[in-house]
Amino acid sequence: MLVVTFDPEQFNFLTAGESSYFLLRLPDGSLTLYNDRCDHRGGPLHLGHWDDVAQCLVCPWHATRYSAKVLRNRGTPLIERSGRVTAVLDLPSSTPVQLVKKAILAQPNSC
Amino acid sequence: MNNSGQTSLAIAPAPSEKAPLRETTSSFDLTWPGTVWPPEETRHLIGLYAARPLFDDTSEQLIRDNPYCRPIDRESTQRLDFNETVNRSGALGASALAAHRMLLNIYETDLIFLPDKNFDARKNDFASYYSNDNKVLGELIRPTLEAHVFNFLDQEINVTGKWTLEAVKTYLQDLIAKHEQSELEMCTAIVSSNDPVRAGRALLLQLACDFLSEASASTRNILGKYGAIQSEFFKIVIDDYGYGVHPVKHSTLYENTLATADLISEVHAYWKFYLSSTLALGNYYHYVSRDHSKYFRAIGAIAVAESMFSHTCRKISQMLRTVFGKKVDTYYFDEHFHIDAHHGRMAFEHVVAPAIEQHGNGVIPDIIRGMEELQLLTAIADEDFIAQVRFFDAVADLKSTAEAIHSRIVEGSFQPSAITHLGTRSQPFITRVNNQDQLYAVQSGTLDLVLGPDQAVRLDRGDVMIVPRQRLHGTAVVSEECCYRVYDFEDYQSCLS
Q: Is the pLDDT confidence value at B20 over 70?
């Protein structure tokens, strides 16, 4: 497994090997690091949108929905403490990692 | 101390007539942090607790042969508001210090302390400390105080995602590896300070708060019946207790360290010099171990503490030998360097991992939270201690800066708020922290600003000095009387621009 620590203000998108993950601040204030690939057909979830009424993320390709609870509980193991986040990725520890800052269109507006 | 005149619940029942218990409990408002008591009632109860004669301020700087005498600064405590929770920056403030003093008093009524000698002279204090009055009143205010000083951890720490045992193991291993590569900043600060012996002694007396009753909070988790991990947990605790062999009980080893550094090894002799962050660390173990709904947080905290303490002890041992030379007994730290390598493994492999396997991944967020909370409180304690060491070293600068600011005040170009104090030699001594920077200006007589048990800054008439916010200090009048003015600033450095 691979442990990555970074500043969530500086980076919000992580690529490790073939996998990508995006940070999302949920309406309850918690932060989740979620696999960017939709379970349905692999759509880029960070380019989805947040449905304020249903409180869920909507995939940009086929509108697959991810509730806040699912995003919080099924994301990558993540700790946020004092302005730093640490993620534990289920990848070999030698996997190369790239961190970038992107526009996360799925980010709830209220956060 | 004399127990006569002890305030009791019988004399001052709570809740008051204005808000009888039945009405209060019928309108629970969970917006009050950590308690169902209305803020006004809580304030009243905290006032009663602070007024107990056992916790009165005393004139001595050190408390000798009396583990029950634990002053909490009644005057300040009765002015402070404990109903709002502190944030991280407030964790070293005045209300946090008062709350932690009271909390440690409350928690430790569950532990047995006896003076080394002169029990007869302390019999009334013994009875008062363990009395139902003291314990019941403490229990009534405990949730409010805990919420006041620990709720900020919920804001600072956030655990999400689909955790597994393997992820926890990987995370902990990564944490330990990084810790073992690190230098301890507090050790560096001690060695590089103007007076390493004074700074080294300052660290040892802070550690005495917890180490002289080591593992007592953890013993709260060895009772009950919860399967094989209970027995594994017990093994860690009995190591700390030296398997019943007193000379190797860890607290005994620490007494030896204190003695060889010319420090007193009586429990809480240095009570008045404990930093807020020192008390917070000790109280945290009680906080998560006394409330068994926080059991998984407790084992997370203990796993991380046991895993990291080995390297910490190695570094402290090296620092002590550098500072004190061969005369200091470092066996306490050398023993932990050895045994905590085992305890870290035991705590994870035989307590944390089986707990997850048996009770499911749903307990992991609490375990991780405990690990993180302890690290955050440790980081705050390290920062606080280093700031205090730098405060010791900065006296000359703080005096010269104070002179520059004071001359602007005298010439009228700057008018901060100020209070004039008239103190006497016989007044009680207590240490405090302030939430703002302060300038002390002695107008008549002589005053000692006491920064530590072996450091006082003498101020005669006309002398001035800055005390930065959140730095622990006390005042002791040296002359018969002393008149001094204390000016408040948001930021003393901005007064120079």
A: no
